[in-house]
Structures are given as C-alpha cells and as structure tokens.
Specification:
alpha/beta, 8-stranded mixed sheet, 27 helices
Length: 751
C-alpha cells in the first residue's frame, strides 16, 4: 500500500441527519495514517439541519456537492466518483467506521492489481453480515461497534477471500476499474438497489474479482432513505434487470448465499465473540468426555466433578474443557454461562511427528488463542504429563486434582490381582498391571510433572496421605467435592415385604467389589431384601437369591428418590480399592440411608468423620459382612445413633466447593493473558471439524442411551419402557432397539 495515495470517501446524503453526523464523527475519530478526502453529495435533503452541517464540513476541507433536485442514490454516487481521480470508498451515511478501517481496507484492495472492490464485515450487509450471514443483525450483546471491530481484527484469518459481489454500504473501488468498466448504471437502476451488483458483474467479466476484507468491521444501521414498500418494488424490478443482464454471475451469487462457502470465517469470529467478555479463562483437562449437553447415568466421578465445577463457575469465569478422543483428536468445549462452543482438533492435521508432540502443539495454541489464565488438570490418561510443562512454559498457573492413583501407578486403583497393594513399589515386580514398567521411572516422571503445578488437590485426607507417601516433598491440599443438593419429595417407605432392605448402589464392577457383593447376596439369605441399583459392568455378576431386586441404571441424583421409594435401610460399600471420594456415598446419606463400608480410602474416612455408618476391616470376608448386616438390623439403639448422625449430616454443596476453588484460583492468577501469535488456521480447522457434526464432542456421549430412553417412552407404555431400560437380561441393547422399532411401526400402522 502506498500511504501517500489519497482515497476519496464518498458519502451520499439524503436527510437522516443524526445518522450522518454519527457517520462523519466516526470518520474524524478514526482518521488514521491513510490519507483521504471526504466527499459528501447532498441529494437535495429537506432536513434544515443538513445544509449548515455540510457547510461547516466544507469549511473544514471536505468536498460538498449538492444536487439541484432529488435524483437518488445512484446519481449521487456517480457524481461523487466523477468528482474524483482517486480510488474511492462508497460509504452509506447510516454507517459508523471503526479504528484503522481505512488503512486495512486500502491495504486489502491493493494487494492484487486484479482486485476491483473490497468490502468489510458489517452487522447488516447481506453476504458480509456477522454474526448471522444474510441477516440484518444487532451488535452482539455487550459489544459496541469499536469493540466488535477490535475482536474481528484480532481473530481475523486475513484471508481476504473472493466474494461474488461487493456490498454497497461500504465499498472500496479501484480507480482503474472505474475507468475500464464505467460508473454505476443510473438509467437502469434508478434511485438504487442492485447497481453495485451490476457494476461488480461487469468488473468480473473484465477479469477482475471482489474480496471480503475480513479484518475490518463497519457498523451499519440499515436503510434510512426510503420506505419499505417503495424499496421492495424497486428491489424486484432491479433484480429482474440483473437476472437478464448477468444470469451466470447472479447464479453464482445465489449459489454463494445458499452454500455459504466462507462459513469458517463467521464461526471463527463467533467462537471468540462468546468469550470476549473481560472474564478470566479456566481450562479443565481430563481423560474422558464431559456430557455437558445432558446428564448421563454412566458419567464417572471425574466427569461429574468437572461438570459441576463448570456449572458452578461459568457465570464468573469462562470455562473450557479438553479431553482426548482416543488418538484421533482433541475435544475442546467452552461455556460463558449462557452458551457452549465446540472445537475438535484432528491430530492427523497437526504437523508434529509424535502423539505427545501433537498434544503439546494443540494445547499450546489453545492457551494462546483463548487467553487461558489457569489450567486445572483432572487426569492425563491418554494425554501426556507434558501438559504441566506446556502450561509452565506459557506462564499459565496449573492446578492438579487427584481423582485416582494414576500418577502413582498405571494401575489407577492400586490393585494387584484384585487386592489393594498400598502403593508399595516393592510389590510391582510381579504385578500384572505393572508388567514391563519401571515403577521408579514412572513415579519420577509423574513427580516431575506434579512439581510444575502450583497447587495439588485431593478430595479426601486419605488421598493426600497416599500422595504424600509416594511424593514426600509434594504439598497437597484437601478440597472435598461438592454436590447439588435438591429437596426430595419422596418419603421413606417401610418396604413392601417387611424384610430388612439392603442396597448396593453404583457401578457394579470388579474393582467395586462385584464378586464380594454377589457372594454376600447369595449367602446372605432370603430373609433380607437385597437391592442392586446401577449399571452392572461385571457381566459375570449373577447372584442367586429369591429376595434379589435388580433395578438397573439410574440418572444421577435420581438414586436419592429411588432409595427412599424402596425403603432402603442400609447401603453397603465394598470397593476393593481406596476410593478417592464416592458421590454415591453422599447420595445414600442424602436419602437418609446409613452405610456399611470397608475402612479403606475416602469411604472409610468419611464414615469415620461423619458417624453415618459402620466400618468393616478391609480384609473382612463374606461371612463377617453378612454377620454385620444382621447385627445392624437387630441393633435398634446402634441404628438410631447412626440416624441421629444422618440428621445432622450436611454435605459440601457445589456452591461451597466453588467458593473454595475461586479462592484457590484467585490466589494463583497472574496478569491477564491476551491471545496473540497463535495458529489461526489450526483453530479454524478445529471449529470446522466440530461444525461438521463429529461424534466426539461429548454431545454423543450418553446421548445414544438417553435418546433410546426417550424413544422407548414415546412408543411404549411407561412401565414397560422403564422395565426394558432398567432390567438386566441378555441382549439388552438389541431388545431395546427392537422395541423402539416395533413400537414405532405400531404407531405408524395406527396413525
């Protein structure tokens, strides 16, 4: 760009004084380094304020032309272009320009000698409209024009892509093109509409092209010159002229509008718009999808905790979540409290050679692009310990929460042949889980990673103690998980059979003691009602007892009502590993059910601390467990004592948990980060990948089961649908799908 070249800004004027004044003031306010001359063409305005205003501008050096009669927009534009020998910008009087607009618009137009016109983004300018394509938009909530323009400039890809036609609200035209193809066709297009399209189509036929200046935004209030009825008649007439004169070019424009081939530019802007709100930005990293669109019965404790943190904090911070999708890519979502945005980074598109380096590159670009102020790591399985190093190198504080023992041993639950090993490295030599792994090297590597975190958090004292045992120099603080406590309408039932109802709740898996649970149920006798609530992961779990009730999976806090409805008097927790928290334990207590559990990990620690249950030695066998259950049933005084403790029990709420983390985060925050220097192409590729509907975005996680649930309830009577959903039987998935198909067919035949 030749900064010595003068550009003429041509503003046609007809009344609309307030708009005109705002437009001129914005030009003056944002006069940058690009030399320009202001040319105003008054189309015989009737507003008495216009003439003195224009005289004052003329006195200040502007060129002011006045039509003797009202000749229309096209005549005024042509008169302005005839009064110039320079490149021109046709600017509607109902626009407001923004900082650096003219320098960047000129640079865009002058990049290629075959460029005829350049048009910036606007809020109301058909194919150049943002955020919604082809619409007249208001400015996004919370944004003034200058701030929105600054955002667009900051995140722009600077592709300056070709578009089929310019848009006349703000249209840069090269003088060479005017000389070759002529002015606007005033005779054919009258007072306006379509004249710029005709000009652009003529330029296309002459070998020129038109570009979108994708790093400039100009605010446009909308048409203020003539009424809607008059405009619509003019529009229809002029569209017919365009179709007759330029059938191919008009078809290409119509196709452009239908296909929206530049959608990535719009989506890129809108992603960053959602988080341009002055808040701090928190990134949560874990190993599994977070079902943020809806709850799911299969959601694990780590996912639940992260989701609860997001929901509790997304009005105070922008919250982002990252997790790996196998080795295919990285899922990345963000919430500003009112909407979620989704990105997916396909790792095959990342240039680094190794998987670890690909993770490093993606995470590094995310930290820069989204101005991440703090990284909170919840799990690095399928990722890499290097996430801590990437945060440190970026100057971003990092927090780690231990949800299991992966940092101590690749066997996350510290089980050796199904038995808790106590994190004793001497037992690793002949442990199947540690085969081929140098446990000392593993712990050294993880210890180095944790040392780069500014805070290490455990949800229970027992977890902190185990980490301290392995990493003596590590400081671990305890923040108990919180729960959303809801009032439950259900009252506690006495139990239909009159027997003592005992429940096993949650995921029935081997590490959760499924073998012991099955043995207890089989040998516990039919004089006790045995209930199992939850997904049965262990397919060998088939206890035989006539008093056994399998209720199947449940949805989140639904278990509180289920336990009350079935009159459960005791819940048993028999995990073979030291659990780090156990949401299910809290839910049982919220239902008013005391618990019997192994004195191991957080389960043992929490029972001891609250007094809301009974403890078993970790090596207690089936006979001892059954004896304790019967003793609890027969000890009315002891049971009453636990019920008193339950009445006093108050769980940590999500609000209390969030307040604790706010205190931690605020303590660690440094200066706010500003996203700059990031790989825009990588971010846009991730936006495009998510927009194409990838199944890796967490929306699909649990959605299949939840969708099936809703379909069953639509096509079958509710009791039958729930029985199919919650029952345990062979070929369950296939039978449910067949039920959906059969129910749908039945409805179609009836309807």
């Amino acid at each position: 760009m030749d900064n010595g070249m003068t550009v003429d800004i041509i503003v046609p004027v007809y009344n609309a004084f307030e708009y005109l004044r705002a437009c001129v003031e914005s030009i003056r306010r944002n006069a940058g380094e690009q030399p320009f001359r202001l040319v105003l063409v008054d189309d015989c305005s009737t507003d008495a304020r216009i003439a003195p205003f224009l005289r004052a501008l003329a006195d200040a050096g502007a060129v002011v032309l006045r039509n003797e009669a009202n000749c229309g927009f096209v005549h005024s534009v042509n008169r302005g272009m005839q009064a110039s020998e320079n490149d021109v910008v046709l600017l509607n009087s109902d626009t407001e320009v923004t900082p650096h607009w003219l320098e960047r618009l000129t640079a865009c137009a002058c990049r290629d000698p075959r460029t005829a016109t350049a048009t910036p983004f606007t809020n109301a300018g058909t194919i150049c409209s943002v955020p919604q394509f082809l619409r007249d938009n208001a400015l996004p909530e919370g944004f003034a024009a200058d701030r929105y323009a600054a955002l667009i400039e900051r995140v722009s890809l600077r592709e300056y892509p070709q578009i089929p036609t310019a848009v006349g609200f703000c249209m840069y035209i090269r003088r060479a093109v005017i000389k070759q193809v002529g002015l606007f066709d005033e005779e054919a297009f009258g007072k306006g509409y379509g004249e710029e399209n005709d000009f652009c189509y003529r330029a296309l036929k002459a070998g020129y092209h038109h570009v979108l200046c994708d790093d400039v935004f100009v605010y446009h209030k909308g048409s203020a010159s003539f009424g809607d009825a008059q405009k619509q008649a003019q529009v229809q007439k002029n569209l017919e002229i365009l179709a007759e004169r330029h059938p191919h070019e008009k078809h290409q424009t119509d196709l452009f509008c239908r296909v929206h081939p530049l959608r990535r530019l719009w989506e890129n802007i809108d992603v960053f718009r959602a988080f341009d709100n002055g808040r701090r930005n928190i990134l949560y990293i874990l190993h599994m999808p977070v079902p943020y669109r809806q709850g799911d019965s299969q959601m694990g404790g780590t996912q639940k905790h992260v989701l609860e943190l997001c929901r509790a904090l997304d009005r105070r911070y922008n919250v982002f979540v990252l997790w790996p999708e196998k080795e295919d890519g990285i899922c990345f979502i963000g919430s500003n409290g009112t909407e979620w945005k989704e990105l997916f980074f396909p790792l095959k598109a990342v240039t680094s050679l190794s998987y670890e380096d690909k993770i490093r590159q993606v995470l590094s670009e995310i930290l820069k692009a989204f101005s991440i102020d703090l990284v909170h790591v919840h799990h690095i399985l399928h990722l890499t310990p290097a996430v801590f190093e990437v945060a440190r190198r970026a100057g971003v504080p990092c927090v780690f929460t231990a949800h299991d023992y992966y940092m101590l041993c690749p066997q996350v639950n510290l089980l050796k042949n199904g038995v808790y090993c106590g994190a004793d490295a001497s037992q690793c030599a002949n442990c199947p889980a540690c085969a081929g792994i140098d446990i000392a090297a593993w712990r050294a590597k993880m210890g180095q990673a944790l040392a780069q975190a500014q805070a290490v958090v455990a949800p229970d004292d027992s977890v902190a103690a185990l980490f301290g045992q392995v990493f003596p120099d590590l400081s671990v603080e305890v923040h108990e998980h919180g729960m959303a406590v809801q009032e439950q309408a259900e009252t506690v039932s006495a139990g239909a059979s009159g027997k003592f109802p005992v429940a096993f709740v949650g995921n029935i898996a081997r590490h959760k003691g499924s073998a012991r649970i099955a043995d207890v149920i089989e040998r516990g006798g039919a004089d006790i009602d045995w209930h199992v609530f939850g997904n049965i992961e262990d397919k060998t779990f088939r206890p035989r007892n006539s008093s056994l009730h399998l209720h199947g999976p449940y949805q989140g806090a639904e278990i509180v009502g289920l336990l009350r409805r079935h009159g459960i008097r005791l819940a048993c927790f028999l995990p073979t590993w030291p659990e780090t928290y156990s949401y299910v334990l809290t839910e049982c207590w919220l239902a008013g059910v005391p618990v019997l559990g192994y004195d191991l990990g957080a389960v043992g620690g929490r029972i001891r601390k609250t007094g809301c249950g009974w403890l078993l030695p970790p090596d207690a066998g089936t006979e001892e467990i059954v004896r304790r259950i019967r003793a609890i049933r027969d000890d009315a005084a002891g049971y009453a004592k636990r019920m008193e403790a339950l009445a006093a029990f108050r769980p940590v709420t999500t609000e209390q948990m969030a307040a604790g983390y706010v205190g931690l985060y605020e303590r660690l925050f440094g200066a706010p980060h500003v996203g700059q220097g990031y790989d825009r192409a990588l971010i846009v590729a991730a936006v495009e990948a998510a927009a194409k509907g990838t199944e890796t975005m967490g929306m699909a996680y649990g959605a299949q089961l939840d969708g099936l649930r809703q379909k069953l309830r639509r096509v079958l009577p509710r009791p039958l649908a729930d029985a199919l959903l919650r029952g345990q039987y062979p070929f369950k998935k296939q039978i449910k799908r067949a039920a959906v198909w059969a129910g749908g067919l039945y409805r179609r035949l009836r309807g």
